[in-house]
Structures are given as C-alpha cells and as structure tokens.
Write a structure and sequence with these properties.
The chain is of the alpha+beta class. It has one domain (about 5-55). It has 2 helices and 3 strands; from the N terminus they run βββαα. It has helices at about 45-50, 55, and strands at about 5-10, 15-20, 35-40.
Length: about 60
C-alpha cells in the first residue's frame, strides 16, 4: 500500500483525481484545497490509473 500525491477535480469528498505528482508540490501558488494524498487502494486512484494510456501507466504506481 502506497500513498500518492494528487490533485482532485474539486473540494468534495469523492472528487475524481485529475493529476498525479511524484512528490508533494513545494511551490504552491493559488488554491491548495484540491491537493492531497490517497492510498493506491483508493478506487479513485484506480480510476485515474485506468484512464491513462498504457505508455503512461508504466510510470505510475499500480493500484492495489
């Protein structure tokens, strides 16, 4: 089980993941309420992962 740094579509509890960051952003300009971390077991991470092309998936942590 791994934690990944992400950006959510909005501030709601079940917002979709729209971006992945290899590390936590260090220069934060603007609204940071949509940034956070999820476990790779989170269904939203699996949905984000599955939506990426295979060429991108090989660089992302596997769901689960």
């Amino acid at each position: 089980m791994t934690s990944v740094n992400v950006q959510f579509a909005d501030e709601t509890d079940n917002a979709a993941i729209v971006s992945y960051f290899l590390s936590a952003p260090t220069q934060l300009d603007g609204d940071t309420r949509v940034l956070g971390a999820v476990l790779t077991t989170d269904p939203r991470w699996e949905a984000y992962y599955d939506a990426q092309p295979t060429s991108v998936q090989k660089y992302l942590p596997n769901p689960g």
